[in-house]
Amino acid sequence: MWDALFMGFRSMGRNESTGEYVLKMLMNIMMNFTVGLCMCFVIFVLSLWSLIKSYQPDTLTAVAFFICAFCGAFATVTSFIVGMFGVAGGGVFAVAKMAETAQIQNGGNGDNMRNRRQHLHYQ
């Protein structure tokens, strides 16, 4: 939680572009969610058996419910993490494709702005 709170206060590095900074922030947020969800899952599974035992069911019912609850929690956490990484990867891919299309439309010269600045500087 504190990492997510103070992440926005971190300044960009001297040689770091805006895209690199945004990607670093995105990866940090995704890792925070992943670690948090995995820890919640482990704590849930560890406390699940004591919850089941508090109802004093027979052994077969207790094991069946534990397996069903474990599978449900695992499916929820897995689908959330896979969806989160899928959306982030799709977003990065879409931005990269848009940048590639813009570069092709500008004549394929990625250093076009730098060349203009150098040309103006030498004039």
Question: Helix and strand succession?
Answer: HHHH
Proportion of β residues?
under 5%
Question: How many strands, which pairing sense, and closed or not: the largest β-sheet?
Answer: none
> Quaternary status of these chains?
single chain
Please, how many domains? Answer: 1
Structural class: mainly alpha
Using the alpha-carbon principal axes, give the shape. Answer: elongated
The number of strands is: 0
| Mean pLDDT value | 85
Which value, in Å, is the CA radius of gyration? 24 Å
What does this entry look like structurally?
α2 runs antiparallel to α3. This protein has one domain. It is mainly α and 123 residues long. It has 4 helices and no strands.
Give a short overview.
The protein has 123 residues and is mainly alpha-helical. It has helices spanning 2-7, 18-54, 59-105, 112-122. It has one domain (19-122).
Task: Output the keywords.
mainly alpha; 4 helices
Task: Write the topology of this structure.
Elements: H1 2-7, H2 18-54, H3 59-105, H4 112-122
